[in-house]
Request: fold
Amino acid sequence: MSEAGGGRGCGSSVPQRAPWSLVAATAAFCLVSATSVWTAGAAPMSREERQKLGNQVLEMFDHAYGNYMEHAYPADELMPLTCRGRVRGQEPSRGDVDDALGKFSLTLIDSLDTLVVLNKTKEFEDAVRKVLRDVNLDNDVVVSVFETNIRVLGGLLGGHSLAIMLKEKGEYMQWYNDELLQMAKQLGYKLLPAFNTTSGLPYPRINLKFGVRKPEARTGTETDTCTACAGTLILEFAALSRFTGATIFEEYARKALDFLWEKRQRSSNLVGVTINIHTGDWVRKDSGVGAGIDSYYEYLLKAYVLLGDDSFLERFNTHYDAIMRYISQPPLLLDVHIHKPMLNARTWMDALLAFFPGLQVLKGDIRPAIETHEMLYQVIKKHNFLPEAFTTDFRVHWAQHPLRPEFAESTYFLYKATGDPYYLEVGKTLIENLNKYARVPCGFAAMKDVRTGSHEDRMDSFFLAEMFKYLYLLFADKEDIIFDIEDYIFTTEAHLLPLWLSTTNQSISKKNTTSEYTELDDSNFDWTCPNTQILFPNDPLYAQSIREPLKNVVDKSCPRGIIRVEESFRSGAKPPLRARDFMATNPEHLEILKKMGVSLIHLKDGRVQLVQHAIQAASSIDAEDGLRFMQEMIELSSQQQKEQQLPPRAVQIVSHPFFGRVVLTAGPAQFGLDLSKHKETRGFVASSKPYNGCSELTNPEAVMGKIALIQRGQCMFAEKARNIQNAGAIGGIVIDDNEGSSSDTAPLFQMAGDGKDTDDIKIPMLFLFSKEGSIILDAIREYEEVEVLLSDKAKDRDPEMENEEQPSSENDSQNQSAEQITSSSQEVDLVDQESPEESFLNSQPESSSPADTDNAASVSASEQNSNPMENHETTSLDGECTDLDNQLQEQSETEEDSSPNVSWGKKVQPIDSILADWNEDIEAFEMMEKDEL
Ligand code: DMJ
Reply:
């Protein structure tokens, strides 16, 4: 069985250490046919239904790709809320995320081989012509070496692989003459200067035009890179070498891998998250299978598959053994410290690790793959998508979801390995959720916050490169695809490389040290995986029986990982002091801190600051304990800060032609109607006059019974609220006056009161940054009547509502109460202050462990609290701080109560009919737009 078909390593009769190309043909027989085996458990899905779902995937791809091509191309990515291209330098910087953008039409290149998999050969031919005609790889832009390799080099090579396949078939691409490969080679040479380090590990960034280290390159001063960044090159680089005969690429990628292997922590066989590219020292010594490391492991196994080089499998097996020993705490996968692998380094998991069950299938370790996948699915069922990070008890840690494909990838591989139709149902849910929550008129928008359902103006290229491939392949039969997918291997970006490369230009690997690897005793390694054809027919309920105990894992959360550490010390040894147990008033704890080289500094304001000097520790082991303690403290602190924040709110545009599909992230107010406790407020919007809302409105008739739009600035938020309330508004949206500001780039905050009693303010108030606000203002300009819903969580888009012109009775009552409010709140306190008050509500991920970069780290904690981390020192407050504890409690109560499927209407409509309706109005919308033009 080939990797692309799922479960590489499958094939019980495979001779040991056979080059993979020999295995591919044999192994194809061991794949379980998705429909032929399953006799119990989830009901089989009919061919018709699978075809219908496959067609839905095609339609969704057309919607994403079509909008990119129409509104964004030749830009790198589509901004689906504002329906335009994302051009680097023209939008506010988003930091590292932007390093994927090189002004090289990223999404087009990343989509090339998806077009062929989805049987869109004609479109592929057009797309290749566009790449050859329009794409420039010589821009003066600093890009990520890792992202450029997996997305652009991988995209060009995947495109080339399928172009030559099509050409050989004799119908399409007859004109093709390796042009994509030539571009790939040109790009390969552009990446090579990054490897000019003593270690051979590449610099993380390169200037496409000027390389590294030259002044005009504006890069080359970095000292660190992530393990995945340095260890995810071999597939693309080896393919480039073997396609072209230029050996240098494979050599460089092998050298980087050799170095990482040398640097593994020898007792645990784990690698850290970041490494110094000059000294080879581990900079971050935590280790997991998610962000920062993920595809390093993936590429070791896949390099064995593609290149047939045993040393890669030996390395992978060694690491895998360590992962299963320390990181795998079924169903969780939790980061640990490389030197003390029995100690967890985190209390949360990131979404990137969702690829791991797929890799386990490839290795042939199905059971833990089923377990972790099921745990992830339970999290998805709770939040509709996998949040970027979630805690061991399955609470949201980082609330974004940029439409990542990893879970779909694992679902596909598990289906191929088990043939269990359950995984088809999982795929169906993924499709439904994407259409229901992420689809917007101009593409699919990333989720800014899975709890509120709000969107981000972002559609990453990997959504097209990966998501649609895996979803389509999940439902496709062999005959639905115009070539044999099993002849190819998927890169980490799901680009396809042909397995025949393993026997082409093999001399390259012979020259390299990796193939002479003999260091480990590999006698216990299993060189094959279980043959699913034998395993599952004997026990068709196998996968189901593994999943069953996990069905309620999210509801009845069991943070096993944390317990495990204590368990390991039950044998007698005293457990190290954990950050969460630390009490600044406990003399025993203070003694332990001293031993670890951690000192307490009492600050004037009553807080205490912790500082570690490794050199002052009693021993190197104590110093390490101290470092770990500080890391834990920082982590705990950031987690508790997050928990103390008010969650953001949502402004959902519900009128034609949006119908609830566009959801904007809004900041809450510390006064007025609390949307988390009350029903949402719905109404048409109207701009207030004066627009800043700082004095009595001159247009009360325009805002009466409506949601008033007010500009930020000139006076207090509370004052604006009172003025619009007096004019009869039922709610208010404050729009930032700082042009270009966006919740993508600025931390969200709560609007604070004016320091006085704000109980008189009864209407809900929300804050939008300028970019989100202008989406509403543009809509008013275009459609005049714009209706919005203010809530704590976006509501399902129910097309029935599209026909409702009249406000609901609920809104009637809101209108009435607004009128009452108007008459009862004539007298308000006016505060004459220049700057509005605000308190920050940071929803951005924070750097997780700054402490481990040095031997001195510090964190502040409040001594007065019995829990040392109940401190407010990092909460940035421009205005007054409200009682966050109460709010937190209310917030969690609300979270418990909130049903993920609240619907506007009472009617339940099947998803198919919802989708059909949507398609109709999207078409109508497009027609209307064309007519207007
Ligand atoms: C993709 O670009 C690749 O899969 C990469 O390895 C990490 N994840 C992103 C998508 O989430």
